[in-house]
Amino acid sequence: MHVEMVSVGKDSRARITVTNTADEPLAIEALIGRAEIAEDGATSFVGSDENFLVIPPQAIIPPGATQNFRVQWLGEPIIAASESYLLYFSQIPIKPPRSDRLVQLVFNIGVLINVAPPVGEPRLNVVSKGIVRDASGTRRPTVTVENSSNVHSLFPQSSILLEAAGWSQSIASGQLTETIGIGLVQPGHRRRFTLPVAVPDNVREFDARIELKPRR
Description:
The protein is mainly beta. It folds into two domains: 2-116, Sandwich (Immunoglobulin-like); 124-212, Sandwich (Immunoglobulin-like). It has one helix and 17 strands. It has one helix at residues 173-180; strands spanning 2-6, 13-19, 26-37, 43-46, 52-55, 58-61, 66-73, 83-91, 108-116, 125-133, 139-146, 153-154, 158-164, 167-171, 184-185, 190-194, 207-212. The strands form five sheets. Strands 1, 3, 4, 6, 8 and 9 form a six-stranded mixed β-sheet that branches. Strands 2-7-5 form a three-stranded antiparallel β-sheet, with no helix packed on it. Strand 10 and strand 11 form a beta hairpin. Residues 10-109 form the Pili assembly chaperone N-terminal domain. Pfam families: PapD_N.
């Protein structure tokens, strides 16, 4: 799940709803911190950020009920470039009756929050291409893209055309969403993605053209 915000105006606020589908009360607390996404998709998280207000910071949700959490940006109204955060809803263990005989499992729910500056447009450029084999041995194309703008990009909001001698393949935004998910590319960063099509055995290299259609 992800939430799109802007550093100023009505979109500097958001609401996130958590539903308790269990048959016991659910106690959770909110923890938020900066997120950095590496080229291979690995995420680093630094907690305790003060740029947000989350109300309520903790809640006990009855079985079958929902709880709305209001998220408010408190940082600078004019930021130079998009910033990304992870909001974790962490379960707080509640001591059950006869706890000496039970093992209690707890969980974390993560929500990606992107905060964009009020001015700017995302851009994605293909900087390298390759071919890899997946677990089944199928040859898959890879593209590494770079975001040269001050606004974060979501790779699945693109369509891609792959071309080689005697072969071409177009990939729609919907296909990328199904297989890649959010596909965040932060400002000034690169990301490498494996695409959901097969490359024929006789294709050794290909050209890739990307068309980004951001939805904000």
